[in-house]
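Friendly challenge for the regulars: who can give me the structure tokens for this chain first? No prize, just bragging rights.
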Amino acid sequence: MGTEEAAITMVNYYTTVTPHIRNVPVFIQYSNHKELKTDAGNQRTQAVLQAVSAVQSGGSPSSDVQEALAAASSPVLRIIIDNMFYPVTLDVLQQIFSKFGTVMKIITFTKNNQFQALLQFSDPVNAQQAKLALDGQNIYNSCCTLRIDFSKLVNLNVKYNNDKSRDYTRPELPAGDGQPSLDPTVAAAFSKDSSSLLGKIPGALNPLSAAAAAAAAAGRVALAGQTGSSGVLLVSNLNEEMVTPQSLFTLFGVYGDVQRVKILYNKKDSALIQMSDANQAQLAMSHLNGQKMYGKIIRVTLSKHQTVALPRDGLDDQGLTKDYANSPLHRFKKPGSKNFQNIFPPSATLHLSNIPQDVTEDDLRLLFSNAGGTVKAFKFFQDRKMALIQMSTVEEAIQALIDLHNYNMGGNQHLRVSFSKSTI
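First reply, four minutes later:
Bragging rights claimed.
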């Protein structure tokens, strides 16, 4: 702080009011330092940058610089992606990180509901340079933020080459586990388009065009006329006694703006769902395929249809087709909306917002219990307009979201429900 008085005022204030950052209490006390010196760290960063450029231009770094580099000598980076609105794949990571050196191996996985990767360079200097340039950058406009650390591992052991893991030094590895091994056209398309991911400034990431983002997803390149480039999904193994266009609109609407829904007349356990674009379709598919809805595990795949047709004028299809193009309930209408940053996989914990001031915890517990589930935990945010509620299973949470998103709480205030990455 600027003065001791300011520091004393701050400590006194926060002793009585515990501050919270991301729902975690933070405690503040005096330090033994009289002042902070920040130059040393900057010198070290500068030294590392000089070392990297020296190595790149064929020279060798000085001894003090070598020490700085030795402090982070692993060639393996651990990468976490925050706010993953668009799918990020192994190929996208290879594309970005290979600007800094030879990428030898990548392993991707999901941990704590977050997409993570381990990526091994041929040389620790390249890993250092990539971390300095890319940590905190967004892959796409205002989402998919890279968080990069050094891994304790110094070598990755890759058994299979597929869309989850890859050893670029051993192309002969099997795909394993029924995973598709990647089509050579994919690699070719990515190498042609390398300029779109990173700009001319080192470390500045340009937003990918929406089409390229969709292509990056699951290693599918949406070349013109090829399937997989439309925004239409085929959903099968639905519970035909229970499912309605509205329930599908609400669930799939968590991952994009649903335009039309058609439950198939001759096969009522299947439906076509048209999203706004191919990115949203890809996102919904990656999050909802294999989830349980009304007691059945649903299958979600990309459809070969480009659009969902409405019934011809005058024909009654028993309400199986619904047009939602002008629905006021679309979550992603506003460009740059906060909702883009709060897209998470289905989870047992739900985030509630737009709660009227007079509604109590008991009211909400009762409402969600009546949706056919067991409420395990509940927590209001400080302003009481938002809360977290934890159901006993993901399936119960999905059911509660379908039943209670946009529920009228009185006074024309409609409850908003989405999946949360937090637990209570």
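The CA atoms of residues 78 and 118 lie 5 Å apart. The chain has a mean pLDDT of 81. Your move, everyone else.
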